[in-house]
Amino acid sequence: MSATAHASLQSPIRRMWRRFLQHRLALASLIGLVLLCMLAISAPLLEFLLGVDANTANLFARFKGPSLQHPLGTDELGRDLFLRLLYGGQVSLAVGLIAALFSAIIGTAIGLVAGYQGGMVDRVLMRFNDAVIALPLLPLLIVLAAVDLSKLGLPDSVVESENISLYRIVVIIGLVGWNTVARLVRAETLALRQREFVRAAVALGAPSRSIILRHILPNAVSPIIVATTLSVGHIILFESILSFLGLGIQPPTASWGNMLTNAQELIWSAPLLAVWPGFLIFITVIAFNFLGDGLQDALDPRALD
Question: Going from the N-terminus, what domains does the chain have, and what CATH number goes with each?
Answer without folding.
Answer: 81-288 (1.10.3720.10)
